[in-house]
Amino acid sequence: MKIVSITNLKGGSAKSTTAFNLAGALVEQGYKVLAIDLDPQQTLSLSYLGVGAAPVPLSKVLMEDGFIDNTILRTKYQNLFAIPADHNLKMIKDGQVQIEGGELRLRSSLTKKPSEKRVTIRDFFDWVLIDCPPSLDRLTMNALVAADMVLIPVDPGAGGRTALADTIKYVSAAQKWYNPTLKIIGMLINNINRQTIYDQTTEQAVRKIYKNQVFKTVVPSSVRIRESAEMQTPAVFCSGPEFKRYATVYRQVCDEFLVRTGAMYGT
Ligand SMILES: Nc1ncnc2c1ncn2[C@@H]1O[C@H](COP(=O)(O)OP(=O)(O)OP(=O)(O)O)[C@@H](O)[C@H]1O
Ligand SMILES: [Mg+2]
Fold first, then answer.
1. Which structural domain, as residue segments, surrounds residue 172?
2. DSSP per residue, 213-238
3. 26-57 pLDDT per residue, tens
């Protein structure tokens, strides 16, 4: 099992969309996936995956160092499970509660032996994807501390490159203080319109700085991607010829992801 944090300080940089569609593509390939929504906005769990509240909220498990298996819900896809976010995560995010070892709580709960006679998260899942909130706060640090790797979706819009640099600095802080083996899988350029000079220039600038850390595949800007989230159906599972192109894009993202994470050999 590998734990992947999907992180970028910038709001609207397609973190949740990436988590949603990558989870779908991994499930399509036969992997068992757990998607954790660590953002109090609940976009991934409530809006995209359409799951409700868990018997025990994630915030409670983190605050009380409890058992995370009680927070896991099924989705409409057999091998895709989700831990929904809840509003009280905001208390952790904003530092409203004093928690001893506060940055380590997600890691602790993911590695803890389960309650009752259940299998461990590590034994059951192939991939755990953590969708982070759009700020470099305690929740995001929890994700970076728990993760083996981090995937950074990049928005080519204004402020996207500064946010990317700040996000990388935060990842370095996580590596320095808590998680020296944390690896950056790469940056995935999202929501790009290669027909515009502006987006072409931005893509070139990102590739010039971050070179082969940037995914070869880019996710184009399309209303179909918004529609697929609206239908709570990852692009790879959307029927209809209008979604075919985007299903292919996310299969390519997934293949590149598997090569970059070492789960599959590249060609
Ligand atoms: N490739 C794309 N084409 C068109 N729209 C997209 C694309 N990717 C994401 N979007 C849209 O952009 C908006 C923000 O995406 P998303 O929620 O994934 O970003 P986020 O980084 O998770 O945001 P937040 O920081 O608020 O959590 C959503 O409305 C989403 O549907
Ligand atoms: Mg989000």
1. 2-260
2. GB-S---B--HHHHHHHHTT--GGG-
3. 999 999 999 999 999 999 999 999 999 999 99
Buried-state track 221-240, b at ≥16 Cβ within 10 A, e below 16: bbebbebbbeebbbbbbbee
Question: In a 3-state reduction of DSSP, which class is residue 72?
Answer: coil
> Tokens 């502006």 map to which residue?
198
Residue 265 placed within a domain: no
| Gap between the Cα atoms of 173 and 116, Å rounded | 36
> Which of these, 136, 137, 60, 57, lies nearest to 95 by C-alpha position?
137
Ligand 1, CB within 6 Å, residue ranges: 11-17, 39, 41, 43, 134, 190-191, 219, 221-222, 225-226, 229
Choose which residue among 226, 231, 253 to substitute to test ligand 1 binding: the one with the highest number of ligand atoms within 8 A of its C-beta: 226
The tens digit of pLDDT for each residue in 222-255 reads 999 999 999 999 999 999 999 999 999 999 999 9
The residues near 152 (Cβ < 8 Å, ≥ 6 apart) are: 6, 7, 8, 164, 167, 168, 171, 184, 186, 187, 188
Name residue, tokens 């004093």.
98
Q: What is the CATH number of the domain that holds 196?
A: 3.40.50.300
